Amino acid sequence: MSLSGIRVVDLTRVLSGPFCTALLADMGADVIKVEAPGEGDQVRGQGYLKDGYSWYFANFNRNKRSIALDLYSPEGRAVLERLIATADVVVDNFRPGVMDKMGFSRERLEAIRPGIVAASVNGFGATGPYADRPAFDFIAQAMSGFMSLNGRAGDPPLRAGPPVSDMVAGLYGALGIVAALVGRERTGRGEALDVSLLGGLVSFLGFHATNYFASGAAPPRTGNDHPIAAPYGLFATADGEVAIAPSSDVFYERLMRALGLDEALADPRFATNDLRVANRAAINGVIEGATRARPSAHWIEVLNRAGVPCGPVLGVEEVFEDPQVRHQGLAVTYDQPGGGEVTVLRLPVDFSRGPFRIRRPAPGLGEHTDEILAELGLSPARE
């Protein structure tokens, strides 16, 4: 695997940090998860517990090893120092300053292990007026502007269902770590990096932000309609709805011809995208006049054959029965000690030289403590 031979000391818990380190583990890194004795990562007891086991925990901690250390004790911190001395990367998602108070400032980490990559995933960044504030995904969605863009015009702001700020921060953290490792290969120097939930979501505002920069106007909520393209969104059919996204004049023409609406192509109200946006209700009504006549499956077949981007609106329970999702193997089932057969989401990156696999099940709390201590030349942990 791409990161084989890279050791990561994982001081993270819950989601943003564990997702970051799970990506590294999936790509071959030896990720050692440091957990508090007796309790461990709180996610071990969260989510739906099937036969007493958290599949939520399994999803974000497969391919890792676990060592139980009391970092409030001098002995625990001494072991951590020994562990860091063997590592390439240290990742934490404590509030800024916590690592310093524990005696593991960036400078200290570099002294322990010259060339180390130190990464921190936090709520608002390492500096600034909000650096010390606690943060969760919901707060990051609210404060990043992300929530303000979800929902329909006239409705209150709406959170995205998945914990997007945690996932985005985890992705950026893994990306930054891999870039720092490449840089170290070239220069021999380590790197320190910070990633925040807030910063990650702000960066995902995309064209909403650039349109605001250019116009000075706050972007409105448009529900399933695209704010700068029409027609675009969900359209009623005889038995449900279909998602259609003709984002250019070429796709628009294909759509109208496939629907048998050639005459609408000559309507001056719909001659350009800007006019169609201005007359969105009218063009949507014309299209739904056609789509309501046949079921969704019919239009998905017809429009895809015509080269128009479209698809069904699937619930989570339907996604994993979809033939393309099944073909891609985006869900993986493996044997988890203590949990039986567990299904998790796989790394959605396909490497030609090494396909994704579960090398290790999610670890039990402290499962590898003695093993890791032995690697450090230390005696087994006392009961």
UniProtKB/TrEMBL annotation:
<dbReference type="GO" id="GO:0008410">
    <property type="term" value="F:CoA-transferase activity"/>
</dbReference>
<dbReference type="Pfam" id="PF02515">
    <property type="entry name" value="CoA_transf_3"/>
</dbReference>
<dbReference type="InterPro" id="IPR044855">
    <property type="entry name" value="CoA-Trfase_III_dom3_sf"/>
</dbReference>
<dbReference type="InterPro" id="IPR023606">
    <property type="entry name" value="CoA-Trfase_III_dom_1_sf"/>
</dbReference>
<dbReference type="InterPro" id="IPR003673">
    <property type="entry name" value="CoA-Trfase_fam_III"/>
</dbReference>
<protein>
    <submittedName>
        <fullName>CoA transferase</fullName>
    </submittedName>
</protein>
<dbReference type="InterPro" id="IPR050483">
    <property type="entry name" value="CoA-transferase_III_domain"/>
</dbReference>
<keyword id="KW-0808">Transferase</keyword>
